[in-house]
Structure formats: C-alpha cells, structure tokens
Specification:
Helix content is 48%, strand content 14%. It is an alpha/beta fold and 251 residues long.
Length: 251
C-alpha cells in the first residue's frame, strides 16, 4: 500500500458532537469517510454539510448493538468507498445513575453500546482492514474510566473494558499492520455532556475549576487526537491511551 493512499474510514456515532468533528477533519485530510449513526438523518446532515470538493462521505444507518446493522454498514462502506482502512468507534450512550438504581436493563444497554458495540464493529470490519493492507482502529473511551466519577459505574466499567480491548487487540492485530489506540475525552461540549449535566451552569463551573486549562473541551479538541491516530504519521503508534482533558486526568 502506498504511504499516501487515502484511507477509507468508518466513524460510528458520527451524527454530531465528536463524531461529526472527526468526519470534518478526516475528509479535510483527504480520507473518504462512512458517516455512521443510528440516526440516519443526523448522519446525512453531517455528510451534506461538508464543503464541496471533499472526498466521498457516505451516510449510513448503523446501530452498533445490532449485528445485522453492523455487517450491512461495513459492507456498504467498503463497497462505496473502495475498501476500508480504519474504524473510529465513537458511538456511546450514558444515563447517569447511582449504583443502587442501576438495574439490569440499564447495565445491559450500557455494555451493549459502549463495550460490545466497539468489539462487534472491529470484528466485522477486520477482514476489510486486512484486505486493505494495514489499518487504524481508534476507540473512544472516557476519563470516567481512568479517574472515576460518581453515578456512572456501569459506563465507567464499559469504557474501562474498551481500554482493555485496545491493549489486547494491539498485540493480536499487529501482524496485520493494524494499529489500535484509544482517545479518552474529559468533559467535552457534546449532546451527551449537555444531557448529563452540561446545561447546569453551576455544575459546569465546578468542572472548569477542576480542569488545569480552565475550560470545557470542544469536540474539535478530541477529534484532533482521533484524526492523528488515523493518519499515516501514526503508523508506529499502537496500544496507547490518550487523555484529552485539559490536564484533568494524568494517567
């Protein structure tokens, strides 16, 4: 494979927030992208908003918890983009609850989206990555899994599993020239953050005071790290867990 060959990439949870920012950066760098989200209208809006002249951006209806949906999405992406050279596992779901209120339904959903989903997407995309000749896998975790937070035990456990998945697959997939890394966001201005307290001004002020750089992250801050790991310049970097948190988490 030529070092400068455009790398077609599949980005999950790409209908807004960090995922949409990743799509913007990847296409600006010349990579064709499958904009995958379980909200197809949101995925289409992201793809349609890209400037003219960018590489192809294919909007996909993809639910990471559904095997048939993942298989169809991977096949559609590879067919439309001329192969698949990388995956960004950005899809996530969080409903904060105290442990005593975390019932089995919440636990199952949290694990299905945040842990089983990335593993399923990687597994189904793997033959395409091998066929491409090399691969980039970037998982999105959370600093809640690194430093801990109250009321997110199930979510933190799932994201901790993503970190362990990254480390295991780094060894398993290296023979295929596939790198596997994790970006771990701290507090970031996304719809998920807004839905879990980001609209509470006092809560945001407390977050800001705890962050050495004294601001909440922007989606572009996290997307920059993800796009770096997707690029050819990161071809000798694998197995890394990068916190993007303004200095809040120092692993």
């Amino acid at each position: 494979m030529s070092e400068h060959r455009p790398r077609p990439l599949l980005v999950t949870g790409a209908g807004g927030g960090i995922g949409a920012a990743v799509v913007e950066l990847l296409t600006a760098a010349g990579h064709p992208v499958a904009v995958a989200d379980r909200d197809l209208a949101a995925a289409r809006a992201v793809a349609d908003a890209l400037p003219a002249g960018r590489p192809p951006a294919l909007a996909l209806d993809l639910d990471v918890t559904d095997l048939d949906s993942v298989r169809a999405g991977v096949a559609d992406a590879a067919r439309a983009l001329g192969g698949l050279g990388g995956v960004v596992n950005n899809a996530g779901w969080l409903e904060p609850r105290a442990l005593a209120e975390t019932d089995d339904e919440l636990l199952r959903t949290t694990l299905a989206v945040n842990l089983e989903g990335p593993l399923r997407v990687i597994r189904e995309a793997l033959p395409e990555l091998i066929r491409f000749g090399s691969g980039r896998i970037v998982n999105v975790a959370s600093d809640g899994a690194l430093s801990g937070m109250t009321h997110i035990a199930a979510y933190a456990a799932a994201k901790g599993g993503v970190i362990s998945l990254t480390r295991a697959l780094t060894l398993e997939l290296a023979r295929h020239q596939i790198t596997v890394n994790t970006v771990s966001p701290g507090p970031t201005q996304t719809p998920l953050f807004a839905a879990t307290g980001g609209n509470d001004e006092q809560a945001v002020e407390r977050f800001v005071r705890s962050i050495p750089l004294r601001r909440i992250g922007a989606p572009q801050d996290v997307a920059t790290a993800i796009a770096f790991f997707c690029g050819e310049q990161a071809g000798f970097i694998s197995g890394q867990i990068l916190s993007v948190s303004g200095g809040l988490t120092r692993p």
